[in-house]
Structures are given as C-alpha cells and as structure tokens.
Design a protein that fits this description.
Blueprint (H helix, E strand, L loop, with lengths): L1 E6 L4 E8 L5 E8 L5 E10 L4 E10 L5 E10 L4 E10 L7 E10 L5 E10 L5 E10 L2 H8 L5 H18 L5 H14 L1
Parallel strand pairs: 1-3, 2-4, 3-5, 4-6, 5-7, 6-8, 7-9, 8-10
C-alpha cells in the first residue's frame, strides 16, 4: 500500500491508521505543500502470530509555518515483526515549521521483533523539530511490583499495556478505536 497525500494551505489533516496484521508493507508520502498546512499522523500497530510489516513514512515540509506530528505506537506479540522507518524533511524556505516524529514499540514475547528508525533532514534554520523512539519489553520490575500488590501476572501485563496505549488512543478521532483495541488485546491475552 502506497499513499501519496498533499496537504494544502491552512488545511489540518488528522490521519489515523490501524494495522492489525493484514498488510506486509505500508508506505505514506505526505507533502505539507502550502503555508499553514498541518498534519497529525497517528498509527496503531497490533502484531501477533507471524504478522510482518515494513512501514515507511515520509513527511516533507515544503512551505512556511507548516506543522507535523507523527506518533507511532505498537504492541507486538508472538513472533510478529515490525520494521518502521520515518523521515521528516524540512525543505529550504519552510521557516517557522514545527515537526515531531516518535515511534514506540512494546514487545510482548521473546520472539517478537521491533525496529524503529526516526530521521530528520533539515534544510532550514528557523524551525522546531524533534524525534524519539523506544523499542522494549514489558519491564519485569513493573510486573513484579504489580504482582506484589496481589495482581495476577496477566492482569499486571494488561495494566501496563493499557498505560502504554491509553493517552495515545485518546487522540484518535474515532472513540470506538480505544474500546475495540482493548477488547481485542484482552481477548488475545486470555
């Protein structure tokens, strides 16, 4: 799947994407083409069994006062494999632009794999830009702490997953996504 999107003058695009294992490759190429264009790109990844996906997201700021916020969150279970590469490019002449790119993957099994590589290419001086990434397992210390309070290991893991996703899911424009996600995760963990 390759998606090419152009965001025009003063347009504010909120783009939610949910991956549940169907696609093996996802590509987005988004241009903030005119003054004041704004993008919020939210991607939820739910990998299980032998699901595999390669994701490429490229955001290009082409005009002044453009804004982009890219947030990727993933729950990777069983032997699923997620490979994310993200690039935000701020072209010369895009002064006053603001960009944020983050990817956070939570691995739920020893066989699950995650790779997240965010990158910035900045060709203008008067801008704000940042990126962050984490890939890791559920902390044994966090599990131990919750279990020492009488919570089962499965319930403790569910609480940690809930904490990892809840604020992020609140930003999705469709309120059903949060409910359906936690329902799906709970069902799979039983």
């Amino acid at each position: 799947m390759i998606k090419n999107i152009i965001v025009k003058e003063n347009e504010e695009l909120i783009l939610p994407v949910v991956w549940i294992g169907k696609e093996s490759e996802i590509n987005y190429n988004i241009h903030l083409a005119e003054v004041g264009s704004s993008l919020t790109f939210l991607m939820l990844l739910l990998g299980k069994k032998q699901d595999r996906v390669k994701i490429n997201v490229k955001i290009t700021h082409l005009a002044k006062e453009t804004k982009s916020k890219v947030i990727i969150k993933g729950i990777i279970n069983d032997s699923a494999d997620v490979n994310f590469e993200g690039l935000v490019k701020i072209e010369k002449g895009s002064n006053g632009s603001n960009a944020w790119l983050s990817a956070n993957l939570l691995l739920l099994s020893n066989a699950s794999k995650g790779r997240a590589v965010p990158a910035l290419e900045i060709l203008e001086n008067d801008i704000k830009a940042g990126h962050a990434t984490t890939v890791g397992k559920v902390s044994e210390q966090e599990l131990f702490y919750l279990m020492s309070r009488g919570i089962s290991k499965l319930k403790a893991r569910d609480l940690i997953i809930n904490g990892f996703l809840s604020g992020f899911l609140e930003t999705f424009p469709d309120g059903k996504i949060k409910k359906e996600t936690f329902k799906k995760l709970k069902y799979e963990n039983e």
